[in-house]
Amino acid sequence: MTTLTPTRGGTVLPPPAPSPSAARRRREGGTILAVPALVWYLVFMVGPMAAIFVVAALHWPGMLQPVTFAGLGNVRTVLDDPVFWEAVRNTAVQLAVALPVMITCAYMLGYYVAQRPPGHRVVRYLLFVPGLISTPAKAMVFYAALSPDGLANGALKAVGLGSLTDAWLASPSTALGCLIALDLWSGIGFTAVLFAARLSSVPDEVGEAAQLDGAGHWRAMWRIHFPVIRDYVGVVTMLQFLWTLFGSAQHVLLLTQGGPGASSTTLSFLVYQKAFIAADLGYSQTVGVFLFLTGLVGLLLIRRSFRQTY
Fold this sequence. Notes:
- The chain is mainly alpha-helical.
- Helix content is 71%, strand content 3%.
- It is built from twelve helices and four strands, in the order ββαββααααααααααα.
- A hairpin with a 5-residue loop joins β1 (5-6) and β2.
- It is flat, with a radius of gyration of 27 Å.
- The relative contact order is 0.12.
């Protein structure tokens, strides 16, 4: 706010401009305050990211083993490994199925909750429950449901469909699907709560105007409200993309160990497997570089797809 200073003769003068030295001191003070955050970012963010590329160029058969330079040898080893390509296929299927289904269902649930139907507060809490359960507990729930003597097979037998029973987590044709189902179960409710919170901030006049124009809920949901929060949908999609891409290793580790064979091995689990089980750190971080580049390209594509067009 600018303060005008009256003079003796009644003339109003603007305040004196700050001296260049004062402005320079303020800039220097802001820079000094930013130094701790910058150091933290360089040490704990940029440093590990650069280390991935360095280790990917090394032949390192274990933490206490001698290290030699491998150059592009690890890249050739990875590209010649059929397990790597199986992991690429599984990761692509996981993203192609889980991400669209999760975002679409979560948005529709979030829109429903944002309309404040009877009991909407209870529904909101119930949707958030999977986000409050730890990953091992969620894995145990799915293990109990999908084991040969679990709830799924028991329900099929109870309704006379015993011929459809299967060892779901031990079958090459269903193991990856079970992991995708776990991703959806644990992610849809939490994401729906995020969408409901954002949709609740949309002015009520927008929905009322759509109703006056004769728009039903389906049209209002996709043609009116979705464009308003399109950028937020993009942010949530990016977060779920990163979680699915990088966080699937824990579900694989707890439920299938990547098997049978490599039918449920994903890229993030392959990084863990090669580093901590096979003790091949060079191979592991080469896959990590590929995973990093995949995540970067995916984020750019999602951002471009959901950016506002007005």
